[in-house]
Amino acid sequence: xxxxxxxxxxxxxAIESLxxxxxxxxxxxxxxxxxxxxxxxxxxxxAKLVARAxxxxxFKARLLVDAxxxxxxxxxxxxQVEKLVVKECDPFQHHVVVCTLCSCYPWAVLGxxxxxxxxxxxxxxxVAEPRKVLSEMGLSLSESTHINVWDSSAxxxxxxxxxxxxxxxxxxESQLAKLVTRDAMIGVAQVNLP
Length: 194
Ligand code: FE
Hints:
Number of domains: 2
Radius of gyration: 18 Å
Strand order of the largest sheet: 1-4
CATH topology of the largest domain: Nitrile Hydratase, Chain A
Number of helices: 11
Bound molecules: fe (iii) ion
Helix content: 40-55%
CATH class of the largest domain: Alpha Beta
CATH architecture of the largest domain: Alpha-Beta Complex
Order of helices and strands: HHHHHEEHHHHEEHH
Shape: globular
Strand content: 5-15%
């Protein structure tokens, strides 16, 4: 969410203009970072992995065994995937990711974390009462589905491989990728047909 009138935004803009004025930073450099995080680094990268895993069993097997190596091959920008682990959801097991300590997150495949991910309420409650928090976020899971909560850290980051929705058998890999959302790859949502 962008709020250009928040004290943080105003302070950031003031610092940015001062740094540019003093020639310590160039406006182009700032633009380049913004372009990187809006166009090249974001959930579209994780979505590519998910869609390919849904359509290519060998790729999925490799992704589940060593996601770090797979992601290295893709050479995504953004970092924070030095050790990436992918957890696959099925009707019996759901996975959801948190960083209880701060906000560790796999930037190269998901972009920057949403603000709720950094919220102390999410960080503590998802561990204590995951089923309740997920249902508050719009994901109601059956009582028979076990929920695993994975705590990210500076050493290890997680990506959730959501279940492929029914009725998508005829879709291509790129059409499938468009269905995959950031929230589904954190594990607070499922992938649905529009
Ligand atoms: Fe963290």
